[in-house]
């Protein structure tokens, strides 16, 4: 199926076992447990000697079908779907980290991701070393023998900065450090994680994949590219190298943490995957067009979108992303916080809401909402400015969005 197009690949992916009734959409197996005919069979299933589901916190057929489609979409060797993007991020960190380890990361992060690194993991003896990902020397210098991962977001939110992943990957390979990237902002139809050197992809499927903000979900994709024999915690696991990460994740971390996906969420998001490419392209084209249009508006101090000529990240965006598109997020800097609030209150079509990559266009003032409870010092580290509005562009006709923004910029 590698030669087919992205959407075809997802739509033709069939589940390992045909449905008993031939249902064309894979059913929702809404059950906690699965029964077996004999004690020997259930024991064999628990010991992974017999393929089969035992308990839905561990595996479930509807979730497995969604994982299979995610593998087809991304080309990953293995996929695990979890309850949320944060569940994916925290489970991935917990799989590779240990007391005394450090994670080298960009500080330009989604609020909860910053918080788990800075507060949650630090309390368990895992240090995060924040680096400027534009500075390759700084990244190299931060790594030592206890660095268990490099982490960044594909396009930082809301700053729209892009790390040069292929260049960073050369440093990480030489130093035996895996690259974990949050790719929530550009899905697999717009970005080839494997080609960019990503070893583990984490993402919030709540966003594009859910197909219209229907549900919360997350996924971890493993490209099978890292030698886990080089990770102090995973090296001794009794499975061959490429499977060590997923083995630890599935057999211990994810089932102990218990942030499992719900089967009805997997059903909705699996359908969402089938229309992902169409929606992603339409939304991203509109985001580019709006950013370009409003960059020339007298009330706009600056419009940002990674493939605008004015973006310092255009060359990297052109290298990493397809079709001159870099996701459906763009930002506008206005002259003051008050101007931002007035603008938001004037909007008629665009919704004042958090979240991203819904079918509806959303606008928010990140400094006073997503980062509203962070100290001034933390806001400075993360790089949040109070003159910035973030947009996530949906599927409305772009002319109507243009008119709505125009009218709100009085
Ligand atoms: C870049 C990024 N990563 C992760 C998350 C967390 O995802 P979830 O809300 O599904 O836990 C978000 C949520 O907005 C996000 O924007």
Describe this structure in words.
The protein is of the alpha/beta class and 410 residues long. It folds into two domains: 6-273, Aspartate Aminotransferase, domain 2 (3-Layer(aba) Sandwich); 277-408, Aspartate Aminotransferase, domain 1 (Alpha-Beta Complex). Helices cover 38% and strands 13% of the residues. The structure holds pyridoxal-5'-phosphate.
Would you identify the CATH H-level superfamily of the largest domain? Answer: Type I PLP-dependent aspartate aminotransferase-like (Major domain)
Low-confidence stretches: none
Helix amount: 25-40%
Question: Hetero groups bound?
Answer: pyridoxal-5'-phosphate
Shape: globular
Adjacency order of strands in the biggest sheet:
1-7-6-5-4-2-3
Name the average pLDDT: 96
Features:
5-stranded mixed β-sheet; single chain; 2 domains; 12 strands; 38% helix; Aspartate Aminotransferase, domain 1; alpha/beta; 15 helices; Aspartate Aminotransferase, domain 2
Write the layout of secondary structure elements.
Blueprint: H1 6-12, H2 39-46, H3 61-74, E1 78-82, H4 85-96, E2 102-105, H5 111-121, E3 127-130, H6 136-142, E4 147-153, H7 165-175, E5 179-182, H8 193-196, E6 200-204, E7 218-222, H9 244-257, H10 263-274, H11 276-294, E8 302-304, H12 314-320, E9 329-333, H13 337-346, E10 351-352, E11 362-364, H14 376-382, E12 388-392, H15 398-408
Parallel strand pairs: 2-3, 2-4, 4-5, 5-6, 10-11
Antiparallel strand pairs: 1-7, 6-7, 8-9, 9-12, 11-12
Helix pairs in contact: 1-3, 3-10, 4-9, 11-15
